[in-house]
Design goal:
Two copies of one chain form a homodimer. With 345 residues, chain A is α/β, with parallel strands linked by helices. The first copy, chain A, has helices at 2-21, 113-119, 153-159, 188-192, 203-217, 227-238, 281-299, 327-340, and strands at 27-37, 40-44, 50-52, 61-63, 67-71, 74-81, 90-93, 124-128, 220-225, 243-249, 269-273, 304-308.
Chain lengths: 345, 345
């Protein structure tokens, strides 16, 4: 009896420390780091010199724009937990006009999905795709073919289905949201600080950099959002033996049906949609394309799970569901799919 | 006897878990997160619509560039260790044409100063200043006054004092370095992937965003590099009661001497310089300005420590000393100064 008591005490002390290691409000991290991958060197020549004034009132400095540059690389930051429970590195790819910040703290300051999946024991790799954020961008029209464009707050409000068409107003108090919309409305202007310019002509080098990333990392799970969807599906096609799953959050595009999709038959795919899709023209046009892709992959023996959140009782989610107030609830749906698909240790 | 044995076992189990918590090759992190701070809303109007082709061969989409935008914010990522040993948040501000990546993993893949100071128990706040990286940038000439410019690899090679003037060559094998230069030469092209475009006309809003950051964080220590130097010293002038120290790594500028510098008399300042400064015209012009600043602050009762690394026996360091092969050795010099200045708990 006393022995059992003593054994219990021993175990208790051990557990105390084990639990303080794993307290839910902290992470034990093996490694934090970052790198750039992909890209190429270009040489510019024959461009005229420019006078640039670096300091107000100071003398102009002659700047010669000609020379050699590294361009078209992408940026990746990784955080690897000590107790890695996911079988594979977990790559998080943002959408158009956005960066890896999508997955970090939410605009209302609460923890986002990077933190969520890290706490679940995934080694997270959050990237900034070519042309934006820490990936940098290159001179146009000499290297990037066209000029960039900038998303207005109104476009984001509508395109991301926070409120209906023409419900955006300069004054926050006068903006109308979809009934029950889950976006943290008071943080909308803060969210707009995350926007970055985008180009319409960089798909090929962007895909090439993503494919390089897969080659560098090896076996992995990819979570993609919006414009990242198409890149993610094509990355899986480029290395179906390495991409162990694709989790697509409202992908804005997908590969066309056809024999090539046979390659995806062993890559489990999850596609998740929020609410109010049928109320927004852009998404009404996108849905049939992604549906055709999903159906075709299924026909070829692939496994595609398609979740309309409202159909499982989760209502009001926007295109930016990783920032919505119930984002953890959706992350849990994703995490359960990951576990069901044998992607946890 | 048996009791003592059992107690030892209990303690042993406890210690095992305690030690596995604090292994030196891992971090125990309380919180990882990010935010944007500063900036303003602007409205563009009267600009012509543009046709943009989003998908090769697809129909053009009309894009209206007019509307409301968030601009001139900056980005900050923070990592807070559980066992915080630094008294204050440790802000890390990069130089010109660069981002917070400066402080992360080095281009040769080894851990950088973000990881170093995190392991020393500092809560690190690594930012991307206005106009670059995850801070984003704004349309020009409508919002940013001028066009940006791009650093060539040759300029970086010379300006960052990896090799002498005109020693850069397109072919890596033909590049000449300063004797004993500590930059990881084979990672130079990889380093160039970190470069971002820069503007000569954004100093005021950049300073404003940095000052907002100080107001948001409160008491803090700032580590600045190169172009970040001038911003750091001015941030200290804007809130000398909050900025508990400025650690300037090769600052490329400093406030002019004058009565205003009286405000810095209670802000300890460390200024660190690498090697071969006298062999590069730009740095020869910079040094007297920073020297005049340091002398003036001292005259007014301030405490400025000026370290020429070669004078303390550390030779061959470049402008990018946080990436040099002996970067930990220099970080240690900085960490010791931090400890001497009563900035550790």
């Amino acid at each position: 009896m006393r022995d059992i008591f003593r054994a219990s005490v021993s175990l208790g002390i051990g557990l105390f420390f084990a639990i303080s290691c794993a307290r839910s409000d902290q992470y034990t991290i093996k490694e934090i780091g970052s790198f750039h991958v992909g890209g190429r060197q270009v040489t510019l020549s024959g461009l005229p010199e420019k006078e640039i004034i670096f300091t107000k009132g100071g003398p102009p400095t002659i700047v010669n724009p000609n020379g050699e540059f590294q361009v078209e690389q992408m940026y990746v930051q990784y955080i690897i937990p000590t107790d890695q429970k996911g079988k594979y590195p977990f790559l998080m790819w943002h959408g158009g006009g956005l960066t890896g910040v999508t997955w970090e703290s939410k605009p209302d300051g609460n923890p986002g999905w990077m933190q969520y999946f890290l706490k679940k024991g995934h080694a997270v790799y959050v990237s900034d795709a070519l042309e934006r954020g820490r990936a940098s961008w290159a001179r146009y029209p000499e290297i990037f073919a066209t000029e960039p464009f900038f998303r207005t707050k109104k476009e984001a409000w509508e395109m991301f289905r926070i409120g209906p068409q023409d419900s955006y107003n300069s004054e926050p108090a006068k903006r109308t949201v979809f009934p029950g919309a889950r976006f943290p409305i008071s943080a909308f202007d803060q969210f707009c600080k995350q926007f970055v310019p985008r180009w319409a002509t960089n798909d090929e080098p962007t895909q090439a950099a993503y494919n390089s990333l897969i080659q560098k990392i090896g076996s992995c799970v990819i979570m993609v959002h919006s414009q990242g969807g198409n890149f993610g599906f094509h990355a899986a096609l480029s290395a179906p033996e390495k991409v162990k799953a694709v989790i697509a959050i409202e992908p804005s595009g997908a590969p066309k049906p056809g024999p090539e999709l046979e390659k995806l038959k062993n890559v489990p795919i999850l596609i998740v949609w929020g609410d109010n899709l049928e109320k927004q023209d852009f998404w009404k046009r996108v849905l049939p394309n992604v549906k055709a892709f999903a159906d075709d992959v299924r026909t070829r023996g692939g496994k595609v799970e398609w979740i309309d959140l409202p159909k499982i009782g989760i209502n009001g989610n926007t295109h930016m569901m990783m920032m919505d107030t119930n984002s953890d609830q959706i992350a849990q749906v994703v995490q359960e799919w990951i576990a069901r698909n044998d992607l946890m240790k």
